[in-house]
């Protein structure tokens, strides 16, 4: 890694594994710094295709990997499910940040939970499941209600099932395809929080103010930041992030999601990359998570993570409202990902930066009513 970095006015070409909206936003943040971007993605028309060169190919296609790696100075990733073999192959020719340890830890829920325990982070009771016998043993030790989650490749609530009664466990395991799973105690949380943090190559560490997140059907719906968090809780969250990133020797941005169970913090999961609950930082912080990720991996000093006000972010899920309607909201920052509409798909997000929490919450309610009315109906029917 030490041979990579910005020298003088030389600009870097950064290779990004994945060309989704996170890749698109990395390039939007890095282009003003003079960086160029190349993406590897199976879809030539992926969201990042508007902002850089795309090598269209599978992540395990050796020829596509060779074309991708040729001429890039540095490789990073925008999602954690890159095959380990891909990282091994690439790392023999080009520096990759974050490293293989961060990637491997974020890919497997059981590995991740054991790692959290080693780092002293509190997690809800959980057990590993790999067959019918270990499933019932897990239900007996963890209790119900519980959440059965595929160890690998789950995202946005996919690959998980809530188990309310002991006898429902086998059908839940069947529904997940009997793949290796974790069973976790269901946490009756009062709210969900996350921290987005960044660590430089020199070990420098910064975090943005804590985000308060609302999920619907397992998908992030809204974020409000800075969340109202007791200073002691904020210090604990920051210390957890620092410990995790130091232990992994992580370089770049990393996110950790927490359950606030009525004042008791429990870690849910981490993502060794830029994260949806940090999208508000584009408009609502001095330096965004995307820019600081790039600064970190390029060996540059990190930018301030100070907030510019109170940000409220609303995800656009499934379909994009008409641009005219979005543009008619004068205090709204619009982020569309150029993705085809599909149920449950993140197609964009909206951010408003307000002078106070009250104003931010009020604007968020209004935005939800106008641009995500189905989420209000869903909340009312599940209340
Ligand atoms: P995950 O993919 O693990 O982040 O889960 C997606 C969402 O499902 C979380 O943000 C929570 O809203 C919910 N969830 C996941 N695990 C649990 C749990 N153990 N207890 C309660 N809710 C959960």
What can be said about this structure in brief?
The chain is of the alpha+beta class.
Strand content: 25-35%
| Number of β-strand runs | 18
What's the helix count? Answer: 13
Secondary structure: helix percent = 25-40%
- Please, what is the average pLDDT? 93
Distance between the termini: 51 Å
Unreliable segments of 5+ consecutive residues: 376-383
Radius of gyration: 20 Å
Query: Bound compounds, please?
Result: adenosine monophosphate
Structure keywords:
383 residues, alpha+beta, 9-stranded antiparallel beta sheet, 5-stranded parallel beta sheet, 27% strand, globular, binds adenosine monophosphate
Question: Any overview of this molecule?
Answer:
The chain is of the alpha+beta class and 383 residues long. It has 13 helices and 18 strands. Strands 10, 11, 12, 13, 14, 15, 16, 17 and 18 form a nine-stranded antiparallel β-sheet that branches. A five-stranded parallel β-sheet has the order 3-2-1-4-5, sandwiched between helices. Helix 3 (84-91) links the parallel strand 4 (74-77) and strand 5. Helix 1 (21-30) crosses helix 10 (289-297), helix 4 crosses helix 5 (109-118) and helix 12 crosses helix 13. The longest helix is centred in the middle third of the chain and has 18 residues, at 231-248. The N and C termini lie far apart (51 Å). The model is unreliable at 376-383 (pLDDT under 50). Residues 124, 147, 154, 157, 184, 186-187, 192, 215, 218, 257, 268-269 line the site of adenosine monophosphate.
């Amino acid at each position: 890694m030490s041979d990579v970095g910005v020298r003088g006015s030389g600009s870097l070409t950064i290779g990004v594994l994945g060309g989704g909206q996170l890749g698109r936003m990395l390039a939007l943040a890095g282009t003003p710094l003079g960086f160029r971007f190349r993406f590897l993605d199976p879809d030539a028309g992926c969201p990042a295709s508007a902002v850089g060169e795309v090598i269209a190919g599978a992540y395990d296609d050796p020829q596509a990997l060779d074309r991708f790696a040729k001429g890039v100075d540095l490789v990073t990733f925008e999602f954690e499910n890159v095959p380990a073999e891909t990282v091994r192959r690439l790392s023999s020719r080009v520096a990759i940040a974050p490293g293989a340890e961060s990637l491997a830890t974020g890919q497997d829920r059981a590995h991740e939970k054991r790692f959290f325990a080693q780092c002293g982070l509190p997690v809800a009771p959980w057990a590993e499941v790999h067959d019918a016998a270990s499933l019932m043993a897990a239900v007996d030790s963890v209790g119900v209600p519980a959440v059965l989650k595929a160890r690998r490749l789950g995202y946005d609530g996919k690959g998980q099932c809530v188990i309310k009664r002991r006898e429902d466990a086998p059908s839940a395991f069947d529904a997940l395809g009997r793949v290796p799973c974790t069973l976790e105690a269901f946490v009756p949380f009062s709210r969900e929080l996350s921290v987005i943090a960044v660590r430089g190559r020199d070990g420098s560490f910064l975090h943005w103010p804590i985000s308060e997140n609302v999920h619907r059907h397992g998908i992030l719906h809204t974020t409000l930041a800075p969340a109202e968090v007791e200073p002691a809780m904020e210090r604990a969250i920051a210390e957890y992030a620092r410990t995790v990133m130091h232990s992994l020797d992580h370089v770049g941005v990393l996110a950790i999601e927490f359950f606030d169970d009525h004042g008791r913090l429990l870690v849910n999961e981490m993502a060794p990359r830029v994260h949806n609950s940090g999208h508000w930082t584009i408009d609502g912080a001095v330096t965004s998570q995307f820019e600081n990720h790039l600064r970190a991996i390029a060996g540059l000093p990190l930018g301030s993570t100070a907030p510019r006000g109170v940000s409220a972010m609303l995800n656009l899920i499934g379909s994009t409202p008409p641009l005219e309607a979005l543009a008619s909201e004068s205090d709204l920052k619009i982020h569309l990902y150029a993705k085809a509409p599909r149920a449950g798909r993140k197609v964009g997000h909206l951010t408003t930066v307000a002078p106070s929490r009250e104003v931010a919450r009020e604007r968020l309610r209004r935005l939800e009513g106008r641009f995500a009315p189905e989420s209000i109906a869903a909340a009312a029917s599940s209340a």
